[in-house]
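@channel sequence for tomorrow's demo:
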Amino acid sequence: MKKRIYMDYSATTPCDSVVVKAMLPYFSDKFGNASTLYSFGKEARAAIEQSREKVANAIGANTEEIVFTSSGTESNNTVLKGIAYMNEDKGDHIITTSIEHHSVVEPCKFLEKQGFKLTYLPVDKYGLVDPEDIKKAITPKTLLVSIIYGNNEIGTIQPIKEIGKIVKESGIYFHTDAVQALGHIPVNVNISGIDFLSASAHKFYGPKGIGILYIRKGSKITPLMHGGGQEKKKRASTENVPAIVGLGIAVEIAIKSMDDEMNRIKVLRDKFVSGVLNNIENVKLNGHPTDRLPNNVNFSIKGIEGEAIILRLDMEGISASTGSACSSYRLEPSHVLLAIGVQRDLAQGSIRFSLGKYTKDEDIDYVLKVLPDVVAKLRSISPLY
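structure tokens (generated this afternoon):
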């Protein structure tokens, strides 16, 4: 049987066996609707609140500030649209960056069509936004600043604490998409002055279909979902109890093991980066060399297309991606890579490897053995090289 190496943990992670075990009773034995008043419902409600407390503890929040959604995408949409619609009598301006995830970019484009004004701030060659640019962009009509915490494609970590201080001094709301950050690096909403935070369980070994939305107490927002009064009227819909339970266990495990796992993954990541750069010519590492997510590696490889590399690697049992899983079927170059100044032809030859808690040293060795041959073969038939 061919060796299988998974190196796309930024796209999704396998659900931890401890998480699956914790979820199972809530599919059958403890199946109650948490909105009901009898014992089955109370049992489900207690489980939800336990998970809410675990999430709150993970990010330095209060339990009443945590809302469960279906995904990071829903959380991002809720903040952007909810703030815009709740406060349109006060302003019509939102500030973000040119390297946001599609679940921020697309709602922003939608709001522009509704008459809202958007500022897309540039970033430097490493993908960092200048906090001073944010300060200069703020106007009396600005409602919200939304900045991704750690970029899903190139891994660059933004100076969130510094940004939060600037936004707080201006008296407006600050949102961060922390989908790639939570569970992998320390995140604290109070230290960083964050008013809204989005995250998703399947990025830290929890189940798919369950997300987190942190809403700072006192913040006014229009719900995206209307219906029943669930989640303190912030998000209508019968709660997904098994997934919420799984999320709580997953975030608890991630926080407890974070320091050791960060250090372990960084060692493997740095070994992989140096191995590729020293053994394959005309390769560029994208993103900040040090201020990046511990598990993220993004290369641009001259002369060949990323999709071709992915397919050849898959034949060798290696799973990687060309960037965001949400745009893996698009043929145009990554907007993130173009924003950091990567030329279009080089951006087409980009590939993201992301490591996780099941990545072993021998996995890195195997990929370092296979990748140079794959690149050489593709370059030998490429009209671009």
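heads up for whoever presents: The chain has two domains: 5-13+258-380, 17-253.
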